[in-house]
Amino acid sequence: MISRILNGWEVISKILSIPGFKRRSIFKNHSLKDPDLIAKVLENFKKSRPVVLLYFDLVKFHEVEQVSGFQAASKILTLFKKSLEREIPEIFPGSEILAVENLLGDDFVVLMAMEGRLEHGELQKIAITSRIGIKERIKQEYLKITGREPDIHVGYAVLGLKAKNVESQLYTALREAQGLAKGSISLETAMLLSEFREILDRARLEIVYQPIVSLRTGGILGWEALTRGPRESYFRSPDILFTFAENVGLLYPLERVCRRLALENLGRLGPDQKLFLNIHPRTISDPNFVRGETMRLIEEMGLKPSSIVFEITERHSINDFPNFNKTLEHYRSQGYLVAVDDVGSGFSSLESIAEIRPDFIKIDKSLIRDINLNPIKRSLLETFITFAEKIGCAIIAEGIETWEEITTLANIGAHYGQGYFLGRPGFPKVYLDKSVEQKVLRLVSSRRHNGWKHAFTVGEITENAEIVRKDCLVREVKKILEENELLDGVVVVEEGKPVGLVMRYHLDRYLGRQYGVPLYFERPITAIMDTSPLVIEEDTPIEIVSQIAMNRNRFKLYDYIIVTRNQLFKGIVSVRTLLDTMTRICQI
User: Fold this and answer.
1) Is the pLDDT of residue 45 over 50?
2) Beta strands in 179-330 (DSSP E)
3) Which CA distances in Å does 377 have to 216, 446, 475, 553?
4) Are strands 308-313 and 337-343 parallel, antiparallel or unpaired?
């Protein structure tokens, strides 16, 4: 249907003409002989002239097409566009019209530069005046074609005078204007939009980090990045901030700013430590999210995709699991990890887990609160832990506030914990308080001693391994593995120290991709090696090694454990050898 109204990112994708946005006009039909539209916007910013976006919607236009036919509908659309081009300059003689475009169907956008500062009331007057003027302009012809008078909805927004992120400003303005035109944004909400957009434009958000701690080793798995609005602002509360953004269709720009700030302010991460980023299911499927912005940011920060966990909240329903999972697989293939948040807070958790197949399951605080006093909660969490281990993921217990809760969680085998007892959200990122750290380590230690009668060190079961240098080519490593079928991997060593690991199945995964052989075969092994393998000193007790090894990312669960003596390479321990040794110890 010609009158199909696009919404969400369908409209945005058209207006922004992705990809190549900055190299050409944002409107598909806009003449390429004219100066680039972005350059026009920037030029007006330099002159302190705000740019206004007007969004026009012909009400019930689909009925015109159904009743009067395709040709009549096309004639009206042509009439409407010409009327905008002629009438808008007459209504606002001091303005500069930058573009007038029909996005698709009955959606039209006008961009114009105005003089002076524009308040909310003035924008309303501009919208009302243009609505009345255009309606009168097309009224007679519209009556002739359809037999009834036209009705027009108008939305409005103004771009800030900010030279950076013009693309983001256009997106935000379009969504705001469209929301007003369609009636999804009330006038009361519109009054708050200017403050909200100013927060986004200036990135006036506070990012805090809360630690996630291993209840089996006492180490820090990583940090969850949490967002707070400006102090003394209506948007201080994250609940208000994100709910407002979702209601006005600006969730993607908000999460985009949050992700950027979370990565820029993170600081260093240790080997295998993670940053947990909250992502709305709707955002991860957004076309602009797929453009690799997150990958660019993490590379700038010296991180890897395996350091990032996309945390999908269970509180938000996922209406299209097939497409959602297709998008998730795109990120998994790049190395990103996935967590399901708030499990236990609603009734769709099991469905979400089954469909998403997460690396981490975060149990909602409602199931953790007073778990030491509630046998039903303990039994339920034990079931979750067993289930998680069977599907190859880990449990994170949220909202831990007491020593009794953490003791119970550790005793029933929970993998990780998060909550005020372990550390409140803070900036810079929070580490365990010394007194809490000592308590956790004593707890972990006591559980180890209860389960082991004999102390063995990993150095006692170390085996020799094939080693290569950093400049060794991928094809040479492939040849080494082909000539020795019993060899599962090679260790990359530089000046006696292990710097990387290449397992047979990881190498085959790289070379098995489309164009994998021509892309990697003649490159140094550093291009595909794991730069953060598990490295353990030879005097480490075997029970500690087993706990650390079994809590690795599931994609690395069966990788070699590299053993060192005074940080110099000594050998490796395979997971099979480790498990066989543990079995023999338990029989003593």
Assistant:
1) yes
2) 206-214, 220-228, 274-279, 308-313
3) 20, 24, 53, 27
4) parallel
> What would the pLDDT profile of 539-562 be if each residue is shown by its tens digit?
888 878 887 888 787 778 889 999
Q: Is the dihedral of CA 508, 512, 516, 518 positive or negative?
A: positive
Q: How far apart are CA 238 and CA 46, in angstroms?
A: 34
Work out whether the CA dihedral 269, 274, 280, 284 comes out positive or negative.
Answer: positive
Q: Which two tokens stand for residue 334?
A: 């790049």
- Give the Cα-Cα-Cα angle 156, 161, 164 (nearest 5 degrees): 110
What are the backbone dihedrals phi and psi of residue 223, each rounded to the nearest 5 degrees, phi first? Answer: -135, 145
Tokens matching residue 62? 């689909």
Integer Cα distance of 9 and 250 in angstroms:
11
Kindly state the tokens that stand for 10: 């369908």
Omega before 238 within 30 of 0, i.e. cis: no
Per the rule left: phi > 0, alpha: psi between -120 and 50, beta: everything else, 335 is left
Q: Is the pLDDT of residue 107 over 50?
A: yes
194 Cβ neighbours under 8 A, 6+ residues apart? 120
φ/ψ of 344, rounded to 5, equals 105, -5
Radius of gyration of the chain (CA): 29
Q: What is the pLDDT of residue 34?
A: 41
Show the tokens assigned to 462: 């170390």
Record the tokens describing residue 296, joined without a space.
């660019």
Query: Reading across the β-sheet that carries 467-468, which strands appear in turn?
Result: 467-468, 489-494, 497-503
Helix H or strand E segment including 214: strand 206-214
- Residue 266 phi/psi, 5-degree rounding, is -65, -40
As given in the structure block, the two tokens for residue 51 are: 């740019």
Residue-wise over 198-224: b if at least 16 C-beta within 10 A, else e?
A: ebbbeeebbbbbbbbbbbbbbbbbbbb
Structure tokens at 52: 């206004």
CA distance 456 to 251: 53
**pLDDT tens for residues 393-402?**
899 999 999 9
- Kindly state the helix (H) or strand (E) to which residue 561 belongs, with its residue range: strand 561-565
What gap in Å lies between CA 143 and CA 325, rounded to an integer?
Answer: 49
Q: Which residues pair with 338 in a beta bridge?
A: 310
47 and 136 Cβ atoms separated by less than 8 Å: no
Q: What is the pTM of this model?
A: 0.58
Residue showing tokens 């005097």: 539
**Element housing 388 (H / E):** helix 375-391
CA dist 565 and 571 (Å) reads 9
**pLDDT tens digits, 561-573:** 999 998 899 999 9
